[in-house]
Prior knowledge:
About 35% of the residues lie in helices and about 15% in strands. The chain has helices at about 10-15, 15-20, 25-35, 45-55, 90-100, 115-120, 135-145, 175, 190-195, 200-215; strands at about 35-40, 60-65, 105-110, 125-130, 150-155, 160-165, 225-230, 235-240.
Amino acid sequence: MSDSILTPRELRRYRKQIMIPEFGVEGQEKLKKASVIVIGAGGLGCPVLQYLVAAGIGRVAIVEFDMVDEVNLQRQILYGSEDVGKLKSIIAKNHLGRLNPMVDIEIINLRLDASNSIRILKDYDVIVDATDNPETRYVINDTCVILGKPMVHGAIYKYEGEISVFNYNGGPTYRCYNPFIEGEKFKNPVPAEVGLMGVLPGITGTFMANEVIKIITGTGEVLSGKVLIFSILNNSFYQVTVNNNPENHSIIRIGDLPGNN
């Protein structure tokens, strides 16, 4: 361990992870060298960010332009009543910095769209989709295809959560799972329109953080080509297979395919 890039403090802090034989010091070093960007610091983003920062990811960026609303507090556990009306990104960074001061936390206070996505996402190893609208997901997906980056995806609906990893080692993209068809409803409804249980994004976001860690460290089986869907109402879990459509890998600029322009 004397040649490790981990400091004595880090070796002590992450000891429980390092003790796992399949993970070890090498896994922790991979986390320290990795960079992850999370788009959205809402219901899904809050648990994703907390577990990634706690795990020791070296550099974590938060893309979030919104302010804290009282209606968020039922599920967005990075914020408290005293934060209502304040920028989520700043509150999240302050909270996460107290959680783990050894992680470099960056904030990007703007809305991700087709005009800025490549510039914002290009310098990170793993892209996390913690958004709640299909248009932004298409922008994230298409940017990941262009940049060759994996996209960790999560979505929530009432009592149901879903998780997948798109564009991983040539695997299916988000468009393979949810193709844009003019006039048809998307597979991922917007939670604000239907409601959801507060614990659901916490469970879903934790699964998403786990996929990020597996991608970075090369441990376990990544949810590529499959979507894990579960219900907290009846404790059911099942997976659906996603077929890989080569056409969805041919994007060379944002706006080549419909849905994000």
